[in-house]
Amino acid sequence: MKNGLLHDLRSDFHRVISRDILGPKKNGKGGIVYFVDKTLNEKTPAYSCADKDSKASVLIAYRLSQMLGCPACEKPPEGQTAGTLFVNHTAGFLREAFNKLGQIRPGKWKFEIRQFANGIARYEQYEHLGDLDRFLKEYPKLKSALGGDYLITPDIVVSRSQIKNEDVNRKEVLIRRGDKAARLTPLLEANTEKPRDILHASISCKWTMRSDRAQNTRTEALNLIRNRKGRTPCITAVTFEPTPSRLASIAMGTGDIDCTYHGALYELLEVVEELERERGLGDSWELLQSLVEGRRLRDISDLPFDLAI
Q: Model pTM?
């Protein structure tokens, strides 16, 4: 990394993604899995973020990896292992990039991926869900009527610590204990019996995007919106899915997810445009452009700044 430039942090992110997750899929015998195009008499290696049965997905994923220009993973992990690594590397990039924005978004911030069993109930806006969960465990018959799964645990949570009165009064005295002012705001530690972090953002990480994963992310988002007491946290999704139509399954529409972020959007745009000219990919390029221009899809490097809003 050179001088902490965001461009270089992004390149480092691509390097570790390629090293640990992105590479050609292997079959049971250790050989590379290929997509064979009988019409053109060619075969393309199916990379780990691709759907091996989809020509467009395989072509885009392969070209995307080549454009990143990083050594590929020789034995790419599958399933949960790939997902966990993607979460870890995404959290690492966001933590490092966001911490460099202290001059525009001061405060004590935490980026966490290993969460407690009580999930979002540990944060100020959702503390009441812990009481509700204990009540439903005592009276399980009510659970079917009231619904369940309140205590979700997002892949990455960003929280802000409460501040002390002396922090507010550092430049000039603005508040004093006992004054009839700012007695209820959760940002001030003095207003709560015990310190509680405030949930600032919930980030869902999906290495690839299938319809069930998109639905799970939306359900999680609606839970955060409906069950809060206070302001809604920033609700986003991050993915490395190569196929525009599958990106649309999570990025299209408004009301639940604030925005979807791709791990290499600029490279993806270039790859899809090239393949559209060479092979024709239906409306893939037009769809991808509509998601970007409609402010529903952004690059991973945009997310630290969006978290600073």
A: 0.93
